[in-house]
Design goal:
Blueprint: H1 2-52, H2 54-57, E1 66-67, E2 74-75, H3 85-88, H4 94-98, H5 105-115, H6 135-146, H7 151-155, H8 167-173, H9 179-188, H10 191-195, H11 213-220, H12 226-235, E3 244-245, E4 248-249, H13 260-263, H14 272-280
Antiparallel strand pairs: 1-2, 3-4
The structure holds heme C (HEC) (2 copies).
One heme C binds at residues 52-53, 55-57, 78-80, 82, 87, 95, 109, 112-113, 117, 120-123, 125, 141, 145, 257.
Length: 285
């Protein structure tokens, strides 16, 4: 009898200890579960990203290496960098401030992907707005994009080059251009995606063909040199909007992106890219 009571008591105490231990572990288990779910989302998102987004935003999200989805050929990137401190770092990232977004970063990216950007090459993706992807697929891609936010990315300081008013002032700091490098950059930055290739006047799809820009540029704005006009067109495309684009009047559909000052000015040395591209276009010696 005595023994039974002792065994009973021990069994009871053991049960309580085990239950108590399980209760303490519960939040940890929930966390593991959430992490596992996020992990699966990121994996699925990576696959979807590779198939749908890499053609324009690049395989690593840096808008540097893009391939035609159908042929696998290397093409110019039309999209902006996404694996990018200006988009991903800080509660309100630089891109969110630039576009006056007041909600969270997740909501910013989710909304951009779902509805696209009207008037740009960024398509609508959500089925509810006529795109090809389900809501859960969009969430997966968004998790994948957010996962690029790392300490390393965000420890690179945000830098904004103080662009001078004139190309002549810029040339004081960056006196020589490299046309060969400029040709590569013309593709990397996606210029060729909209303006086509300089050697084929029928290859431009969205913006005016630039094979004859060296002659045309000086005639666009009275009293302004061709080099100054092109400099301003790249940095402040809305200052002068060209009339005729390949698909009709410019400004009706896709327009020239306005964030090249940020992309070509995110380090002390990056403005060299602009000088190289202008050299390639024949506007600088
Ligand atoms: C046909 C080319 C194209 C494809 C495909 C594409 N994008 Fe874009 N995307 C763009 C362009 C161009 C922009 C810049 C729009 C602008 O000027 O504001 C952009 C902008 C974005 C932005 C906002 C970036 C910022 O800094 O404001 C996000 C986020 C984005 N895209 C995500 C995606 C995702 C995710 C996919 C795949 C589901 C995708 N894009 C597919 C062309 C594309
Ligand atoms: C998303 C498409 C797109 C991309 C990418 C793009 N542009 Fe444009 N660009 C346009 C359109 C559309 C216009 C005409 C409307 C305007 O003048 O703003 C234009 C106009 C210009 C002009 C004025 C042309 C003229 O005939 O007067 C220059 C110069 C220019 N772009 C250079 C560039 C360079 C250099 C790049 C790459 C660094 C680039 N663009 C990337 C669409 C684009």
């Amino acid at each position: 009898m005595q023994v039974k009571i002792i065994i009973g008591t021990i069994a009871f105490m053991l049960t309580m200890i085990i239950l108590g231990f399980a209760a303490i572990r519960e939040p940890g288990r929930l966390e593991d579960f959430t992490l596992a779910r996020e992990g699966r989302q990121i994996e699925t998102g990576a696959r979807l990203y590779h198939n749908q987004c890499a053609t324009c935003h690049g395989v690593n999200g840096k808008a540097e290496e893009c391939y035609d989805a159908a042929t696998g050929e290397s093409i110019g990137c039309q999209g902006l960098p996404l694996n990018y401190n200006q988009l991903l770092c800080g509660d309100t990232s630089a891109r969110m401030s630039a576009l006056n977004w007041e909600g969270s970063k997740l909501a910013f990216i989710q909304a951009t992907v779902s509805s696209g950007r009207y008037g740009t090459a960024m398509p609508t993706w959500a089925q509810e707005y006529g795109g090809p992807l389900r809501t859960d697929e969009i969430s997966d891609i968004v998790q994948f994009v957010l996962n690029w936010e790392t300490e390393e990315l965000c420890s690179q300081p945000l830098f904004e080059y103080p662009w001078p008013e004139t190309i002549d002032e810029l040339l004081v700091t960056f006196p020589t251009g490299d046309a060969v490098r400029g040709e590569e950059l013309y593709t990397t930055y996606g210029c060729s995606g909209c303006h086509g290739n300089l050697d084929d006047s029928t290859s431009a799809t969205v913006g005016p063909w630039q094979g004859n820009l060296a002659e045309e540029a000086g005639t666009r704005v009275e009293g302004m040199s061709g080099a100054q006009y092109v400099y301003e067109s790249i940095l402040h495309p809305n200052n002068y909007v060209v009339e005729q684009c390949p698909n009709g009047p410019c400004g009706d559909s896709s327009s020239m992106p306005t964030n090249f000052p940020a992309r070509m000015g995110d380090s002390e040395t990056k403005p060299q890219d602009l000088v190289d591209i202008m050299t390639y276009l024949g506007l600088l010696p």
